[in-house]
Amino acid sequence: MSARPAPSWRPALLGVPAGDGTVRCELCPFRCRLPEGALGSCRVRRNRRGTLETASFSTAVAHLDAIERKPFYHVRPGSRVLTLAPPGCTFRCDYCVNHRLSQYGREDDVPWTGETADPAALVARAAAEGADLALSYSEPGLAPELTLELAELARAERIRVLWKSNGFLTPRAVDLVAPALDAVNIDVKAADEAAHRRLTGASLRPVLDAVERFRAAGVWVEVSTPLVPGCADSPERLGAIARGLAAVDPAMPWHLLRFTPDFRMARALPTPPEQLRRAVDAARERGLRFVYVERALGEAGRSTACPDCGTVLVRRGVWRTLEHRIADGACPGCGAVVPGRWRE
Ligand code: SF4
Q1: Which residues constitute the domain of residue 32?
Q2: Is the CB of 302 under 6 A from ligand 1?
Q3: pLDDT for 3 beyond 80
Q4: Is the beta carbon of 31 within 6 A of some atom in ligand 1?
Q5: Which among 144, 212, 232, 303 has most CB atoms closer than 10 A?
Q6: Whose CA is closest to 77, among 264, 310, 262, 290?
Q7: Which residue, 259, 220, 227, is CA-closest to 340?
Q8: Is residue 49 part of a domain?
Q9: Same domain, 82 and 161
Q10: Which SUPFAM superfamilies match (predicted)?
Q11: 25 in contact with ligand 1, CB cutoff 6 A
Q12: For 294-335, what is each residue's pLDDT tens digit?
């Protein structure tokens, strides 16, 4: 195994000692039972002398992004987020465009190039930039300890913390982090268990449960679905996901992400724009009111229209807001409510 500059380890939350030196981790639904010295399936949590430890106080990036890039389209359009990416992911998706961060510990030739994440310094920088904080690119669900420390410091500065997550968390983990989070964009990558397991190596049910549990806790939730070939690329499969999301809340924003070849799927083809157009139509037919495509369908794919009168209320370029007309959470023309966290 090649040497890599590993992140440092710190005590972790959600470890349950079994009394025989093993520790059960209750962060994600794998619930790894770890003997002394063992790493979890995620490779960023371990049992060290009977204590659960995490490698998540490290970040590969610390840069400013438009909030639209996460993507969040119903959260303070035009605002900026200081984005962080701790190592690791619970999933092993073959298409992952961020596999050099997410697959840390699994791919021997991938060194960790991140730096120690200092919550106080990161919050101070976000405050100086007038930005919120976002954890993205890898799996923030593996960094509840960092998230809680950031949120604790950020609260005094009126800075919010947001996640782009795979949602693969235990109910206990959701309850732990929800009070620290303003918004979460969760990937729902498949319509059924078999396809989700094939793509990610994990069950779909906990992800759907997390969507509902975060919402019930008052966290703003948007959902993303990458159109991965053979998994979520047909109108039938996407329609089934849309039906499930509409049953939770037809006003929940849904982002359809164009598949781009990468990692072990470098030879697959990108999603044709026509396929994305059909997916948008299928979603609207199932009742979803806010369906978005970032690039392939131009400005129309990124705009927010009033669900009642059809007036375009938010116009977006790629990763920026061009016009924002929502007033007091409603359409200024007909008064229809447009759910979101639109202003400060
Ligand atoms: S977070 Fe990691 S160690 Fe904990 S249960 Fe999940 S895979 Fe296992």
Answers
A1: 10-54
A2: no
A3: no
A4: yes
A5: 232
A6: 290
A7: 220
A8: yes
A9: yes
A10: Radical SAM enzymes (SSF102114)
A11: yes
A12: 999 999 999 999 999 999 999 999 989 999 999 999 999 999
